[in-house]
């Protein structure tokens, strides 16, 4: 392998030369000489994802919102928990009377623009951080994917670290970056993790609701929009540890596969090509305004929110529904036919497009 070829005039490195042939949206950060046995897909032992969301996604529902009306019934006092952002939401100008045949649109009162100008308060940010922290460690994520029963060994996943970074303003919108380092992920897992954390923060639900979803109870957790989900970098710790220990026949120590030394240029690239695009799409589509359902200030999953694997949502195409009495063996038989996705990029035969990530 030629690592130091002669370069045309004007290029200081092979990386710079290779990038000159690539479109600006695709970059090569660097390269290392690896052992012959190295295979990037199999040597990757964990992954770091980032989920970027506008901070106004954490605003509570307005008092006229159906979700707020539901919370008023099942969880009195929830507005006291989210008092500061609730005051901002409720201060919205009244919706003008619609013309005949023309329903009132929040855009007509500039509500989208007003919310984009909101800056998260310290209490709301801390509550969101407390929610995200509940995911750290090894847990049963059967409620965070499709068709997996509680007893399936593959639903236990190890989240190494989770970090909610300080908000940053790009354009006119304040964004919050959540960095998730996990051993592996299942289909939809991160989007559902983010959805529940956002929903719980918005509704004044305590963090203990998240551990409750790791128990043997089937609940429906909606997916957060895919727009902000980004695979930031794969990790090769096991390979790097092995490379450091093996002799290199008197040559220089083996180089490690390590993306951290490129973090500065990677961040600059993300701001220019990813964050800016997210901002444009958010302004165009208002994706952060999507609402979710349920929860309460007790942090308890009510019986009415529970589902079984015999629910229509959890029966895959071609499966036979279990008997109406909820026979456990039939539930398990249906579950065994469900997808076996180790990572979010798995090809899943028999699933509809709606069930696939993104």
UniProtKB/TrEMBL annotation:
Compositional bias ranges of the Basic and acidic residues kind: 97-115
Keyword Isomerase listed: yes
InterPro entries: PsdUridine_synth_cat_dom_sf, PsdUridine_synth_TruA, PsdUridine_synth_TruA_a/b_dom, PsdUridine_synth_TruA_C, PUS1/PUS2-like
Taxonomic placement: Eukaryota, Fungi, Dikarya, Basidiomycota, Agaricomycotina
Entry similarity comment: Belongs to the tRNA pseudouridine synthase TruA family.
Oxidoreductase as UniProt keyword: no
Domain Pseudouridine synthase I TruA alpha/beta: start-end pairs: 132-236
Region (Disordered): 93-115, 316-358
Name listed for the protein in its UniProt record: Pseudouridylate synthase
GO BP annotations listed: mRNA pseudouridine synthesis; tRNA pseudouridine synthesis
UniProt KW keywords: Isomerase, tRNA processing
One GO MF term: RNA binding
Amino-acid positions noted as binding substrate in the UniProt annotation, renumbered to this chain: 49
Signal peptide residues on this chain, from the entry's feature table: none
GO cellular component: nucleus
CDD domains linked to this entry: PseudoU_synth_PUS1_PUS2 (cd02568)
């Amino acid at each position: 392998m030629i690592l130091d070829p002669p370069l045309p005039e004007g290029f200081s490195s092979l990386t710079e030369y290779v990038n000159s042939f690539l479109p600006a949206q695709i970059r090569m950060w660097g390269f290392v000489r690896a052992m012959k046995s190295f295979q990037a897909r199999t040597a990757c032992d964990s992954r770091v994802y980032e989920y970027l969301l506008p901070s106004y996604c954490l605003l509570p529902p307005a008092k006229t919102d159906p979700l707020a009306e539901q919370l008023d019934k099942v969880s009195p006092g929830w507005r006291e928990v989210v008092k500061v952002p609730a005051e901002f939401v409720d201060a919205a100008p009244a919706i003008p009377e619609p013309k005949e045949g023309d329903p009132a649109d929040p855009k007509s009162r500039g509500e989208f623009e007003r919310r984009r100008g909101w800056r998260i308060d310290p209490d709301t940010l801390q509550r969101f951080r407390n929610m995200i922290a509940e995911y750290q460690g090894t847990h049963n994520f059967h409620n965070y994917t499709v068709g997996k029963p509680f007893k399936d060994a593959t639903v236990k996943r190890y989240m190494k670290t989770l970090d909610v970074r300080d908000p940053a303003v790009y354009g006119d919108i304040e964004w919050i970056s959540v960095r998730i380092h996990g051993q592996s992920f299942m289909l939809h897992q991160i989007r559902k993790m983010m959805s529940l954390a956002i929903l719980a923060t918005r509704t004044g639900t305590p963090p203990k609701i998240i551990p409750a979803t790791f128990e043997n109870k089937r609940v429906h957790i909606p997916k957060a929009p895919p727009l902000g989900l980004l695979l930031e970098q794969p990790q090769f710790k096991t390979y790097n540890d092995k490379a450091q220990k093996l002799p290199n026949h008197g040559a220089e120590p083996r180089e490690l596969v390590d993306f951290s030394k490129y973090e500065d240029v990677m961040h600059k690239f993300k701001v220019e090509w990813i964050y800016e695009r997210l901002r444009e799409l958010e302004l165009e589509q208002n994706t952060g305004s999507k609402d979710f359902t349920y929860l309460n200030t007790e942090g308890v999953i009510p019986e009415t929110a529970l589902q079984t694997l015999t629910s229509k949502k959890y029966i895959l195409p071609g499966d036979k529904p279990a008997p109406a009495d909820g026979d456990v063996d039939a539930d398990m038989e249906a579950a065994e036919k469900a997808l076996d996705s180790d990572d979010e990029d798995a090809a899943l035969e028999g699933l509809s497009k709606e069930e696939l990530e993104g």
